[in-house]
Each structure stands twice: as structure tokens, then as C-alpha cells.
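tool_call predict_complex ligand=LLP
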Amino acid sequence: MHYFNFKGNDLYCEDTPLRSLVEKWGTPLYLYSHRTLCRHFEVFDSAFESYSHLVCFSVKANSNLALLKIFITQGGGADVVSGGELFRVLKAGIDPKKVVYSGVGKTEEEIGFALEAGILMFNIESSEELKVINQQAKELDTKAPISIRVNPDIDPKTHPYISTGLKKNKFGIDLPRSLEEYRFARSLKHIEIIGVDCHIGSQITETGPFVEALRKVITLISELRQEGIAIQYLDLGGGLGITYAEEVPPHPNEYARAILSEIQGQALTLILEPGRVIVGNAGVLVTKVLYTKSTQEKNFVIVDAGMNDLIRPSLYNAYQEIVPIAKKTEERYTADIVGPICESGDFLARDRLLTKVQKGDFLAIMSAGAYGFAMSSNYNSRPRPAEVLVSGNDSFLIRQRESFEDLIRGETIPDFLSYSSTSRAR
Ligand code: LLP
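tool_result ok
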């Protein structure tokens, strides 16, 4: 449940009309509801309260410092996949012992950084990575706490780009080979085995695939125990889906019940890495209608947010609900809602039945809190939007709108290019 609702004809975030927020902060604008963020974290966390657990928010979904701070304050940990994400969570004040680090391509520098920070564990994705982590830990005269990310070969029934637990995916170590890999890990002096990890994909809307993967992982844990390899942590990754359109994903309580019924009685600490389910419906992207036009084929609504601001529709053909922030008419028509980027793939919605809008109106693109700003870019040299956190009647700027100067930060023109054009043209 989220706190973006119509009161009369106006869309509100909590107690604040979006109209006043666009007047104050301009567009395109990412807006997050504080109350929704807190509620989503709390509902998810408390669903697991009967079992020892740690909710590690998946930073890739939304890495804004203010949001990270909210979850840290609520007792959350973090799932990071880069040195940059680790830097962010440390900046936000996290206890490093609540950080897990996944990803197939951790560099030596990133591994060193995480070892020095003293994170809870590395989720290992290959044999070669294991060797590098052992070596880095040796150089720092320490031991690296690890779990192996196993690939259980489960179909999560989601978009192919975001399914990760199939044999053909690049992630993890095949389940049949994982026992051998654990034996190898045990032979390394600077590795301390503490867990097993598994993440099968994202936007999963049923409990079945999670349970199927979990059963396979539990079998592995008992095999490991028989070999004297003690496992304390079971990291089940993230992946619980949300409603963008008609999906009816399980409530976190149902998801937790399905998982907990499989692991009752096991002396483990469960780690969960939710991203989308916490932040997805807690954020919207507000955009202004710049122009409307009709061609022989189609109606177009041209807005000031593009695929550089929200790439999900272009990249995954993802559906995001789009509503005017003020209801002015009942009249509807079918249109493509497109951005200013010079690509036909730059659309936010195609053939969408929409309340008729005109130049100067504002639209809210719903469910944009996860993988929205986090995947934004400066393509077409477009400064990225501002991010604002709303709490009740108040709103707080949590990331400034980028300026043109921001666009060229770090770029230089080498001296030799500054010769006159005639001297170079020879
Ligand atoms: N843990 C790991 C290891 C992951 O790779 C991911 C997401 C998560 C946790 C969090 O998954 P969530 O709970 O958010 O489903 N950009 C795509 C989604 C990519 C997900 C990548 N991994 C999208 O916009 O749909």
C-alpha cells in the first residue's frame, strides 16, 4: 500500500498535492513518500520476525543516501554490488557487519575496500573470484567471510533480462558443482565459510519459484553439514514483485510464511535482499507535457522526461501506470507518451488509453521508485532530475537537479586540440 492518492481531482503524495511540488521543484521530478518507504520496510521486516533474520535492502534499486538512511535507521542492512554502493551505505552510516556483497565482477580494489570495511560476507560467484578474495584477504592478513551464490536452475517466470537463477545465466555457481566449490573454499586459508546464497530473479509474482529454489539450497546445506562445513547464514536474495498493472504478487506475509515453513527448526540466520518491493511503489516520476501532436498513425504526448530518466519501458517494455496529477476531463484517447530523446525507443508508454491531456499538464509515472533514478543517465546531455522526499506536508530535496556544469564535470580538452584549426588541418 502506498500514499499516493487522489483527493478530489488532485493527486497527493501523503498530505501534499503534487501540483505544489512541481511548482516548487520543477520537472522532471522523482518524488518519494517517506511514510510509504517506512511502512514497506516495516511490513517486510516484521513478516520475518519469528525467525532470526536480516533485511539487506538491495541498493541497486534506489541508492539515494536519504533512502538508505531511512532503512538503516529501521535496523536494515544492505546488499551491495559495487565499491560505489558500498561507499554509499557507509556514508549513510551503516554498520558494515550488516552488508552483503554480491556480483559476478568484483575487482581487486573493490574486494580490498570491502575487506577493510569489515563487511558481513561476500557472495561468491566464481572459483576465480574465490581465489582473488583469498589472496586479497592474505595481503590484509585477515579472513574473508563468504557464502557461495548457487545457481539452482529455477525459472522465476519473469522478464528474461531479470531472471538470474537459470543455468544459462551468468550468475552464481551451478548447484551440482557447488559442493566441490565449498570443499575448495575450505582449503583456502584466508576464507571463512559462513553462508549459502541464492537469488533467482526479480519481479517474481508467485511464491513457487522461491520455495523450489529454497528446497534445493536446504539440501545443499545438509550436505555441507555432513561434511563438517557449518552454515550460519542463508541468503535468499530479493525478487519479490510488485503491482505495476494487474499483477497480484504475494503479500510479504505470504512470502515469509512460504519461506519460513521450509526452514523451521534450522539454526540459521536468514538474509533477504528486497529492493523493488520496498521502494517501487514508494516513488513516482512527475513530468510535464511539452507538446501534443497527432500524425496519420498515432497521437503523441511529448513530455519532458525521457528514457534517460526512466529506462524501464524502453529496456524491458515494462508497463508503468501514468496518470495526470489533476483530473480535468473524463475524455480519453489512445496515445504514445514519449520523451525528448532522439530515438524511437524513447517512450514511457505506447498505445496507452489516457485521460486527454494538453500542453502544460503534468503526468505522474507511477511505481518509479525502484530502478528509476538508479538507472538514469545523461544520454543526449540531459541533466538528471531532482529527487524529493515528501513527509506529510513537508518536502525535502534529497538530490539536486543536475546542471549543465554537472554534465561536463571531469572532462578536459587536451592542449593539443586547442591549436588553431588551420595548423591542424595541414
Ligand atoms: N539481490 C541480488 C543479488 C540482485 O541481483 C537483485 C536485483 C536484488 C537482490 C533485488 O531484487 P528485487 O527485490 O529488486 O527484485 N532493472 C530491473 C531489475 C534488475 C534486478 C537486478 N537484481 C528492472 O527495472 O526491472
